[in-house]
Amino acid sequence: MPEPDDLAKALVAEQFSRSDGVLHVGGLDVRTLSDTHGTPLFLYDADLMRRAYRTLAQAVSGFAEVVYSVKANPDPAIIRIFAQEGAGAEIASGAEFAAACAAGVSPDRILFAGPGKSDADIARVVAAGIGEIHLENAEETARVALAAGHQGRTQRVAIRINPGPDAQGGAMRMGGKPSPFGFDEEDLDAVVDAVEAEPHLHLSGIHLFAGTQGLIAGTLLAQWAYGLRLAARVAARIGRRLDTVDLGGGLGIPYFSGDTALDLAALHAGIPVLKELVAGNPNLAGARIVLEPGRYLAGPAGLYVARVRAVKRSRGTRFVITDGGMHHHLAASGNLGQIVKRDYPLVAVVDRPETPRSPCAVVGPLCTPLDMLARAATLPDLAPGDLVAVLQSGAYGLTASPTGFLGHPRPAEILVDGGVATAIGRRDA
Ligand SMILES: *Cc1c(COP(=O)(O)O)cnc(C)c1O
Fold this sequence. Notes:
Elements: H1 6-15, E1 17-19, E2 22-25, E3 28-29, H2 30-37, E4 41-45, H3 46-59, E5 65-66, E6 68-69, H4 76-84, E7 89-91, H5 94-102, E8 110-112, H6 119-128, E9 132-135, H7 138-150, E10 155-162, E11 168-169, E12 172-173, E13 183-184, H8 188-196, E14 201-207, H9 217-238, E15 244-246, H10 264-269, H11 271-279, E16 288-291, H12 295-298, E17 302-314, E18 317-322, E19 346-348, E20 357-363, E21 372-380, E22 387-390, E23 412-417, E24 420-424
Parallel strand pairs: 4-23, 5-16, 6-7, 7-8, 8-9, 9-10, 10-13, 10-14, 14-15, 15-16, 18-20
Antiparallel strand pairs: 1-2, 2-3, 4-17, 11-12, 17-18, 17-22, 19-22, 20-21, 23-24
Helix pairs in contact: 6-7, 9-11
This protein binds pyridoxal-5'-phosphate.
């Protein structure tokens, strides 16, 4: 049985460091950063993001290129880190498009997904020369065609496919469910014909995204192989090769005790078979294969740091009450779509190997029992003024949280790069 804090310890050892017991991020002392910038705050390590990008790009090199899914962490300073590594961007709103452009991503390297795109956003990205718009329903096909027609352009589009019941991802069934995203595979031929009939659309690709937080290499590889077969089928129907095959994001990171990190070596070992699948099929050979992870690239690099305000016992349970909570980090509180609420890895910012630890619950300042950062952490004695840090907080953190709930101020977001800490993020209120 893994101990609840095994994962936290392993992550600190692998990604961060301690000096005289004090947690450091990118070589900087988390206590000093917290004093300087105030708590609660998010800290992001640019080097860890680069490392995640490079190791993944390396693992799939020769097969796929890696594009950053902006919704995981949409700050232009974060997008820029990946853009400078050579990554394009996947966006799902006009604001994300603007953020990606501001970060230096060229519009033709941007992909636009999302089930309910607005006319204004469609017009804007078409005018800016976006690389590809992913069509998710028949109305959208018509509206993108109309916008492109109005502007006298031909827009490159991909059909997003909701895979059918036969799609298998390793041992897991991955398809066949109703979904608001994309077109059902069962309707694919008719959808392809409808898109092909639009003179202002150029069908350049397909898009498939089977699900988030995949930790098993074999499952991902099977999903990707399925996507390639679908791409070949579409290419055969239109009588020409597709330019792009977007196999989606969904590469996972460990959050909970017992989670095992995605095995990149196993993923890498499965790549030759996929490359053969592509090379051996004239309808696929030469296509640009795209992966668009968000969580995997940004998640491990972020910490959410909160300061202890009070410590109390209630009927035998130690409660550590902090200034940070679900209003900044909904996912860590277990309220962002989790079915079973389990604790994110959480550590004390000052902790030494010999320090005795005991169980506690870590909660936020909000007046709701939902505001929990950990139900069963194992932490040293803590007093008001001490700091705790939630790990794996670089993706789906602040911008996936209800910051207006209960009217507490927004936290600072600090990017640490080359030993320098820079405030990023929105600074209003
Ligand atoms: C959210 C999203 C992603 C990124 O998902 P991760 O699980 O963070 O990798 C990629 N593509 C699309 C279309 C998305 O909606």
